[in-house]
Amino acid sequence: MLFRSLMTSHNPGRDIYNADAANALPAVVAEALLYTRPGVLELLPALPEQWDKGRITGIRGRGGICVHELDWDLSGLTATVTVTSDTTQDVTLISRRGMTSVSTSAHIGPSDQGPHSRNISLTAGQRTRITVSLPTSGARLAGPAPAGPATSPH
């Protein structure tokens, strides 16, 4: 059984707490909302349909990226993420839902991974806010985004 506190119970009854799931659930939720690996920042890769609007803060991503906050509003067709990178690097920003536009103070370039992605140049230690406008409908990536290094057009 899963309690509101995200603690689980273990057989033989509901009065024995089990911390196994409680230790894993935060990572499951975080990776449903934001997936990172070196050179890649993917927004809302496995967002449950019931979570059409929300916000999460304080995620430490792989590849030296700190995600200060991620806000999304599917009815408003936007997702906004604020990040700081430990190093100056180019990352591929991916949205399986697609992108109609991306706005940020950082340099934005096209990605060889298609219209669902852009290359973003992050400067070490600089807080960067990125807003993605989502399409009203259309095809979504069904599987994982293709692997590959982020490339810079400059």
From TrEMBL:
GO molecular function, a single term: alpha-L-fucosidase activity
A family per Pfam: Glyco_hydro_95_C
SUPFAM superfamilies: Six-hairpin glycosidases (SSF48208)
Domain Alpha fucosidase A-like C-terminal: 39-106
Composition-biased stretches (Low complexity): 138-154
Highest taxon in the source lineage: Bacteria
GO process annotations (BP): carbohydrate metabolic process
Gene3D superfamilies in UniProt: Golgi alpha-mannosidase II
Region of interest: Disordered: 133-154
Annotated coiled-coil segments of the chain: none
Protein known as: Alpha fucosidase A-like C-terminal domain-containing protein
Biological classification of the source: Bacteria, Bacillati, Actinomycetota, Actinomycetes, Kitasatosporales
